[in-house]
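Dear colleague,

Following up on Tuesday's group meeting, I ran the structure prediction for the two-component complex that the binding team flagged. I've pasted the input sequences exactly as they went in, so you can double-check that nothing got truncated or mislabelled along the way. The structure tokens for the whole assembly follow below. Feel free to forward this to whoever is handling the docking comparison.

Inputs:
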Amino acid sequence: VSAPAAIRGGIVWTSASAGDDDLVRGLPEPVRARALRIERPGALALAAVGRLLPPGVEVRRDLGVAVGTTLGCFATNAAYQERLAAHGAAGASPRLFAATVSNAAAGEVGIAYGLGGPATTVTAGTTAGLAAMDAAHGELASGGPGGLVVLAVDVVDAAARRWLGEQGWPAETPAEQVVALALGDEPAALPELGRLGAIALGRAGGQPAAAVRRVVGAALAEAGLGLGGVRVRVARAADAGMVREALAPISTVETPRDAAPLLAAGGPAAVLEALGATAAPVVVVDVCPSGQVAAAVAWSAR
Amino acid sequence: VSPSSAVTEPVVTGTGAVTPYGRGVSACWDGLAAGRSAVAPIRSFAADDLAPARAAEVPREPRDPDGAAAFLLIAAAEALAGAGLAPDAVRPDRIGIVVGTTLGGIRIFEGWLGGPGAAGPPAAIPYFAAAGRLADAVGATGPVVTTQLACASGTAAVGMGARWIREGRCDVVLSGGADVLCRYVVAGFNCLRATAEEARPFDAARRGLVLGEGAAVLVLESAAHAARRGAPVRARLTGDGAAADAVHMTAPDRQGRGAAAAIRQALARAGREPASIGFVSAHGTGTPYNDAMEAQALGAVFGAHRRVPVNSVKGAIGHTLGAAGAIEAVLCVEVLERGVVPATIGLEEVAPECAALDLVMGAPRGADVRACVSTSSGFAGANAAIVLERA
């Protein structure tokens, strides 16, 4: 796409059921109050951005937001629909309906932190987190804002967990999961963790191993690298074997530390985790059960 | 080596649409040209407790559990045929898919959760399903993404597709939007008091929007790819922009700052001055706040040159949500080619706060348009804009 973009800050937060106190701890008061009254995906986003941009970090109004989500507002969709089904049109909740759009979290972040730059939300199965990083990278390369906050957020309530199970997706995933990082030169006060070189996205078309080879190859080529000397890390441990075989003779594939697989947060979390390890470049591979594949190439700042 | 901009310039070689006028871009254009409104009492699902209970529905297609995806596939087939492009003639990994939707897939969600909708494969519930289904249908193995910027989703999808071409990552992108109506959606907009019996964009008596449904797809190609296969270029997609209001979740910024910023960014990326724009396809929902906001935004951007023709098609085909931006982009291509701007159906007396706009009303207007802007806004303060130019 263009010159590598700086990866700044970085928060990975997962929980089986975080209490409100944990969620809003340390947030400035107007944001804290907002987080407590809105739907959970938005609240998670506010909490993560509050930890990424602590008080004192100057934020420009043209900073953008890019959100990736696997499930959108599935839990809110379900809550709204249940009331509608039970009570007819009179049961339709304006408060819930306004939060049923998948870009609700991006909107909440923009309002709470005054971010008026481009606000994009994307879904692409579990690869949505890397797709959001890709969208942000594209904005920067197109002469957009000086930086974007990238979020990957999902809330897995009982209905969503049932749906994941029926699809054969990772239903044992944490109930609340959010990753936040900044991409670009702003906010300059955030520490630079590394550089994002390239992201490639593709669809398996029934041949996931071939897709992994193709997408990883495209990402590395765009970053000006070959597989030699590059670490390979998967977003979900369950994919390690397939990725190892697909990329043979490269045999070493790193897996995430957390046992529980993440949804959209998996890709960006793997990038952040990899940046904290060694200085060698890393390619993070995310393979979604839907057939979507994503690969991101990053370098540590160490 | 970065591909040169001339080689990777995104061009439009095919368009397709499913609208409340029926299948096909021509059906949509003819309906608009005739000044006919497609808004009618809701027929396809129980609406006895909905108020208003009117919408612009697509004439019934064969039932598909995922109506949004069904519309999308029909629109894509028309777009590919129009482009003279067989997907298997393109390297699969060089074909990308980007689709915008607001609540596509929700009709299945109703059924899955025990509501009144038709039960179907729950795989269609996450909004990514329609894009994935289109990718599988055409054998695309390039990037596949769904943009979700509420009612700005379709415009954002077209902009993202153009960017993929410009970046050199795809030769062809099927880019568009799709949404389908159901009780979930209509009850939601009704309970927000955003709807009315009829949509009257920019009118002094406007009271709210009327919902619609449909899909549209544009075949975007790199100029070099289109030239290699001798495909006629119908339009060039030269700029895209997005910005947030950062003010309110459902109400627009009263000054239209986000919409103006999105338009300015699109113009800057296109290398265009506002004075060179010959037509604006407005979001124009017919809600009091949206239309006033847009008048502010367009005035701020176009300034002394604000006498640019402006229209909205939502009085005719309703607000088709995530499909709207894509349908309007397709209609912009028609305007560039035909030199005619459809009238804003439902507009009879321009609202004082919109009086500075040169609104096309009453009858279609001939206009030698070389470059135009299409703009969309949505919940959560989302705004997106694109610039299309004559081939």
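The CA atoms of residues 216 and 295 of chain A lie 6 Å apart.

Cheers,
M.
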